[in-house]
Write a structure and sequence with these properties.
By secondary structure, the chain is an alpha+beta fold. The chain has one domain. 14% of the residues lie in helices and 35% in strands. It has 2 helices and 9 strands, in the order αββββαβββββ. The strands form 2 sheets. A 6-stranded antiparallel β-sheet has the order 6-4-3-7-8-9, with no helix packed on it. Strands 1-2-5 form a 3-stranded antiparallel β-sheet. The radius of gyration is 23 Å and the shape is globular. It starts with 11 loop residues before the first helix and ends with a strand.
């Protein structure tokens, strides 16, 4: 019969192991997030990790004859930028984020072409911010500019 069972307090080895596990799990969170600040010209504050592929701000395509009422519109990209090389989300975070229409260092503008100024964002219409990332989760959020203030849909 084995009488070598432990019924006393938890050993310090177990506590240390639990602590290390907690650090590992919390350090693995590279979920990409975005918050939107400002108004008619929003600033997108991103956090997370991963190599950025493309960032797009889309809105209603008013020129499309199949467009319906607000909330059921076809969309098109108003502004799209892509990095010139590898560019981690954390680097954009450290630079202070992204402002609509201002191409950050290390990026090139894709839409509109030829570095044209993107159109003003319409008020009271659903807009979309999308950040696609190569080796992590990207993020997409819908937002509205109402009374000159940007608000994430559903917040």
């Amino acid at each position: 019969m084995n009488t070598n069972t432990r019924t006393g307090p938890v050993s310090w080895h177990c506590i240390a192991l639990f602590f290390v596990f907690g650090l590992l799990v919390s350090g693995c969170n590279s979920q990409t997030h975005v918050t939107i600040e400002g108004g008619a010209t929003p600033a997108f504050m991103v956090t997370g990790r991963g190599n950025i592929q493309v960032i797009t701000v889309s809105g209603p395509d008013f020129a499309n004859p199949k467009n319906g009422e607000p909330g059921s519109r076809y969309t098109k990209p108003y502004w799209e930028v892509a990095p010139k090389g590898e560019y981690d989300v954390s680097r954009l975070e450290k630079s202070g984020g992204l402002v609509y229409g201002r191409v950050p260092d290390g990026f090139r503008q894709v839409v509109p072409e030829n570095d044209a100024t993107p159109p003003p964002l319409p008020e009271d219409e659903i807009l979309t911010f999308e950040l696609r990332v190569a080796n992590a989760n990207g993020v997409g959020v819908r937002f509205v500019i109402h009374n000159k203030k940007s608000v994430i849909e559903g917040s």
